[in-house]
Amino acid sequence: MSVEAREKRQPWILLSPALVAVTLLLFVPLAFIVVYSFWLRTATGADQTGFFLDNWNEALSDPFYRDILISTLRIAAITTLVCAVMGYPAAYFIARSKGNKALLLLMLMLPFWISYIIRTMSWINILGVSGAVNWALIEIGLINEPLQMLYNETTVILGLVHFLLPFMILNVYVALESIDISLEDAACSLGSTRWQSFLEVTLPLSLPGLAAGGLLCFVLSAGTYITPLVLGGPTDAMFANLVFEAIITQLNWPLGSALSLMLLAVLGTLVLTYNHFLGMGQLMKGLG
Amino acid sequence: MDNTKRYERLRERYLNGDLDRRKFLGLIGAAGLAYGVQTPFARHAFAATEQVRFDGWGGVVSEAFRKYAFGPYTEKTGIKVVDGTFGGSDEYISRVKASQPGEYNIAHLSGVFDYARYAGLGLASELNEDNIPNLKFVIPKLVDVFRKVTDGKLSCVPYDYGTTGLAYNRKHISDEEMKEKGAKILIDAAYKGKIGGWSDWRTRIWYASLQTGQDPNGAKNMDAIWDAIRTHRDLALKYWTSGAELMSLLAEEEIYVTEGWSGRIYALQEQGHDIGYMDPPNGFGWQECLFVIKGSPMEACEELLNFMLAPETSIAVAEGQNYPPALDPTKIDLGKKIPTLPAFDPKGTLDGLTFADPTYWNGHEQEWSKKFGRIQKGY
């Protein structure tokens, strides 16, 4: 075999374990889900095999699913916006700090050492009727009766921001780190103020990082079901809760499959749009 | 398939004329030879069952099982009990459906409707009752209802019973008010934002039946029921999804009133919380069983069931989990604590409890669970 042919094969050999894993763990199960979405659930809970479009008809034409999907996308958009507003200054601070960057990044990663569910549930002890905030407000005399702060859409968004903020900060940080700091100085030396140099130079150059962080936050929050389950009220369900309910509570795997593919299609379109305009390279940088 | 079934099938084929006499006798002979050869090793093969998987409701219930049943059983037999939990039988059935035969073995199911549903999905095993002599101590009525579902055979042993009644915080709601309002307190606007409820469609429909003055096992006006469920949803702070969440919401005073599981409320009372408990007329009674799933190592499972039904184990578990055992109080002395537990029936007839009719509930399961899912989310 020629050296050229061997060099051509080498990347594929190196990639093959990952490709096998992705095929077996992602594409094959996905194919099963596609097949399932055309089956039907019988009255006993067993599945009826075949090719039926009933689940797709229901998923695409029923306003119930459309409304929850829109509500999910709205919550995901608000979460992403809050993460961007809160995350950018934090990332900027870390990127521009001198000497203690490693410590700050370590602190940023610390929450990942604790389970996401535990982190979500911790808000119950903070915002609950007998939680830390109510206790403090009563102690300092600001209120007499505890405030009802939990189990609404705001607490769902709060829980999501808590979970996703580090993803945003990391992506923006990576983008800011790659900007040559002398560009800001150059802008200042040409007469712009610090604020102008930030707006005209730094912010535009860091936008790919912001977009990558935004994409991650949006996709992850739109697909969550734990946060609304733990911190939401009776009507704060998101689309993934519908998938969970169809599959687990109603034992309707075919409908659950159709719903999960619908969510995948919406989020997939978003990722493809991002890739078309910005490319996936920035996202990979942010993921380390 | 056991040997008896194999012989019966063989005999049927012979009688149908599918096998000639010579072949039939030859196969019987071969089977006999195989049995003779394997018998000396069978004991070792059965002994090879190293573990049995048990899935239950978690929390104080699982703690009681671990402490009083699984630990001593493993010590005695050397068979490990892998102890899993679930939030409800719907969730569990989904897991079993996705599993390989034999992966899940025994489940602590609630209600005859669950038993019928699992049997309907082809998950019922067939217990050899000779291997469970302690079954004789169980209240006959509890055994009979299961037999009816599976043509006289059993796939489970009854284990305990309880109720889903009304739990309320006595600091904010008096016993008199509860007696006066009954199930309707869950749709009382005076407690908006302080009401809870289990996110289980059966329980919601059951209580809506009581709130609308209908028979929970035969409601006629479903529109009124859905309206009552909507009213409850709009007044509720949270639908709880597990016993632990129920206890936390009540203990932390996030909610003042909800329906709740009798044993969990008793546990809260034991912890010193001033939580009252009341079964309204036609309150939701249920009986739990230990269901053996098809494909499980039957002898090991039967041994575990027999061990768990032994009066000393059963009483200890009942005292730990706060649900009365299925043991017949006219045959067994249940000690001092059990007669104080909510829903306990000293006569063992259970006439005072209303159980869910499996035909009625399972017949509407597909339609109602879906409809409730929508209403729950604001529709």
From TrEMBL, chain A:
**What's the protein's topology in the membrane?**
Multi-pass membrane protein
* Stated family: Belongs to the binding-protein-dependent transport system permease family. CysTW subfamily.
Q: Which UniProt keywords apply?
A: Cell membrane, Membrane, Transmembrane, Transmembrane helix, Transport
Where is the organism placed in the taxonomic lineage, from the top? Bacteria, Pseudomonadati, Pseudomonadota, Alphaproteobacteria, Hyphomicrobiales
Q: What is this protein called?
A: Spermidine/putrescine transport system permease protein
- GO annotation, cellular component aspect: plasma membrane
Which BP terms in the Gene Ontology apply to this protein?
transmembrane transport
Localization per record: Cell membrane
Transmembrane spans = 12-39, 68-95, 102-118, 124-143, 155-176, 210-231, 251-274
Looking at the record, the residues that make up the ABC transmembrane type-1 domain are 69-274
**Source organism (scientific name):** Breoghania corrubedonensis
From TrEMBL, chain B:
- Pfam families cross-referenced by the UniProt entry: SBP_bac_8 (PF13416)
The record's GO CC annotations read: periplasmic space
Q: Note whether S-adenosyl-L-methionine occurs among the keywords.
A: no
* Keyword match Nucleus: no
Q: List the GO biological process terms.
A: polyamine transport
Gene3D superfamilies in the record, alphabetically? Answer: Periplasmic binding protein-like II
| Protein's recorded name | Spermidine/putrescine transport system substrate-binding protein
Q: What is the lineage of its organism?
A: Bacteria, Pseudomonadati, Pseudomonadota, Alphaproteobacteria, Hyphomicrobiales
